[in-house]
Amino acid sequence: MKLALIGPIAWRTPPRNYGPWELVTGLLADGLGQRGIAVTLFATLDSITLARLDGICERPYEEEGEIDGRVWEALHVAHALSRSAEFDLIHNHLDWLPLAFSELAKAPMVTTIHGFSSRRILPAYLRSESAYVSISDADRAPELEYVATVHHGVDTTALPFSPTAGDALVCFGRIHPDKGTAQAIEIARCAERPLVLCGPVQDERYFAEEVEPHVDGDRVRYLGSVGRQERAEVLGSASCLVHPIAFAEPFGLSVVESMLCGTPVVAYARGLMPELVEDGVTGVLTDGIDSAVAGVKRAVGFDRGACHDAAERRFSVDRMVDDYLDVYARVLQ
């Protein structure tokens, strides 16, 4: 089988720091290549992959201030689809834009829906002939038919198990009200534990008013966006990850990564969190600050080895590759 993966170009694949779509697409491309699949990855030309790399955008538009992402994503998709006759299947990881031109594709298309930015993009999905894969059962639009749900896999070798926990809590993700960063600070204060914050500032006003005043370098530390090695060190040394999301999150890579390090998760039971967190094994599902504080007191006593083992069994790249090979077979039959 000859397969084309259309990846995003906001960040490099794999990302230097933030870039969850790029991370998953890169892991899938490499995993499929290791199975002997002939994969061409359409991504930024500075990307690193075991697949054959193609593209026209030299560097990620989020790193180049003069690059217009709308223009270069359109050029990127047009370039990939111009080669579509060379492939048996096209796997789209770039949201709605390739769907708008899917009638021009000369091979069947599978689209992994990494999340809906708005219901206003649904017309592109409804008009396309692509097969759809959701990344969680919780993140499905009732108007669409899906061929499967495939949970993301992560590189378990990059997230070493840490049997010994530190005292601090950690909160990973973009600094935004949706991620509940300010609530994480309050949870840590009530639990009488220090807190480490990691992630890019996506809402400057929220950061300035609700987060930054609490950052003192002691009880609350903010590390910004961290790279892959530092990410594993921070997650592995934490007592638990707090994830007080304020929206129905379609997936949570930091949640899975934390569990793989042996660090349990205390998460609000929204979106797919009930699909990810095994209460009493890999974490605790909660519904507010008081509940989360009690959850922290429970979670810090969990068996970190059991937490790691459960996450490794469910969220490895090999499992994700197996699931997608099954999807491809069903679409091509």
List keywords for this structure.
single chain, 333 residues, alpha/beta, seven-stranded parallel beta sheet, 12 helices, globular
Kindly report the average pLDDT value: 95
What is the string of SSEs from the N terminus onward? EHEEHEHEHEEEHEHEHEHEHEHHH
The largest sheet has its strands arranged as 3-2-1-4-5-6-7
Largest sheet: 7 strands, parallel
Q: Distance between the terminal alpha carbons, to the nearest Å?
A: 13 Å
Query: How many β-strand stretches?
Result: 13
- Unreliably modeled segments: none
Gross morphology is globular
Relative helix content: 25-40%
Counted by DSSP, the helix tally is 12
Kindly estimate the percentage of residues that lie in beta strands according to DSSP. 15-25%
Secondary-structure class: alpha/beta
Write down the Rg. Answer: 20 Å
Give a written overview of the molecule.
By secondary structure, the chain is an alpha/beta fold. 35% of the residues lie in helices and 15% in strands. It has helices spanning 20-34, 69-82, 97-100, 122-127, 181-191, 204-211, 228-237, 253-260, 273-276, 289-299, 304-314, 317-332, and strands at residues 2-6, 38-42, 52-54, 89-92, 109-113, 131-134, 148-149, 169-172, 195-198, 220-222, 240-243, 265-268, 283-286. Helix 1 crosses helix 12, helix 5 packs across helix 10 and helix 8 packs across helix 11 (304-314). The protein is globular, with a radius of gyration of 20 Å. The mean pLDDT is 95.
